[in-house]
């Protein structure tokens, strides 16, 4: 059986082939191609696509594609469940799923930089996941730290600190930079484009977005940023409202007027007049 997915694998797209070959189809052929070619190539060669939007074998709820393989093929194995939590945490930048997730992410981010050939990376990844499976099955309760003091510190961390320290995932910082770059240039960015650049499932980004972006959806946040830029242009330039609408990425001035009034509770023309009047009064 042939299985096909996006090129440049890191975590889930290495873990899933490992699971396929070890528990589903030992003779499986794994194929990596460019994102935009996956579906067409799958139809052409009769391969099953996985780990990309719109196909059966992909992320669901807060789970990753590895989880879906376990569910779809009804694979019951406690060790694989332990692995799934680690892989899920690493693949979605959620180390709260498993403490080992951050380490797994670091390993494959480094390897993907060092090994440009996808199948060479897969071969090494197979060995890594073999080791993780052995740990998850036989050694997961063994601790590297032996000192009572170390155990005490770990206990304090797990009881009192871990739950209170929840930093925003790395992908949110990257996405903020990406959005800001777009605000400074052509103002065009979609959720699917952002997700593809981040290499994160768009359904997951959409679901998690509001947690880290002012309780707003992706679209609401982009519109907020556009209006903020429009206000700045009104304050500091002599551009017409039509020009400002264009510079802030709106399709036309009517659309700009509607969104501006919704957010600022005033038409942009009235807002600008009041703004200019305020400036004169301060002179």
UniProtKB/TrEMBL annotation:
GO terms for molecular function: DNA-binding transcription factor activity; sequence-specific DNA binding. The keyword DNA-binding applies. It holds the Pfam family HTH_18. InterPro entries: ChrB_C, Homeodomain-like_sf, HTH_AraC, HTH_AraC-typ_CS, Tscrpt_reg_AraC-type_HTH. Keywords: DNA-binding, Transcription, Transcription regulation. The keyword Transcription applies. Residues 173-274 form the HTH araC/xylS-type domain. This is AraC family transcriptional regulator. It comes from Pedobacter ginsenosidimutans.
């Amino acid at each position: 059986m042939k299985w096909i997915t996006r090129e440049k694998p890191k975590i889930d797209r290495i873990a899933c082939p490992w699971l396929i070959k070890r528990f589903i189809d030992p003779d499986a052929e794994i194929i990596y191609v460019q994102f935009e070619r996956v579906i067409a190539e799958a139809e052409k060669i009769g391969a099953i696509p996985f780990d990309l939007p719109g196909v059966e074998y992909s992320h669901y709820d807060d789970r990753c594609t590895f989880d879906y393989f376990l569910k779809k093929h009804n694979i019951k194995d406690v060790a694989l469940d332990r692995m799934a939590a680690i892989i899920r945490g690493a693949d979605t930048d959620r180390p709260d799923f498993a403490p080992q997730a951050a380490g797994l992410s670091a390993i494959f981010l480094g390897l993907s930089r060092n090994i440009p050939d996808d199948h060479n990376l897969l071969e090494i990844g197979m060995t890594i996941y073999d080791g993780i499976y052995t740990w998850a099955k036989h050694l997961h309760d063994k601790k590297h730290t032996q000192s009572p003091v170390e155990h005490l510190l770990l206990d304090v961390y797990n009881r009192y600190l871990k739950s209170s320290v929840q930093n925003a995932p790395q992908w949110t910082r990257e996405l903020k930079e990406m959005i800001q770059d777009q605000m400074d240039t052509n103002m065009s960015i979609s959720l699917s484009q952002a997700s593809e650049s981040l290499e994160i499932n768009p359904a997951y980004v959409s679901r998690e977005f509001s947690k880290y972006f002012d309780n707003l959806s992706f679209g609401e946040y982009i519109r907020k940023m556009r209006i903020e830029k429009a206000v700045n242009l009104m304050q500091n330039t002599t551009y017409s409202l039509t020009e400002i609408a264009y510079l802030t990425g709106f399709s036309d001035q009517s659309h700009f007027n509607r969104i501006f009034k919704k957010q600022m509770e005033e038409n942009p023309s009235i807002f600008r007049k009041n703004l200019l009047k305020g400036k004169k009064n301060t002179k």
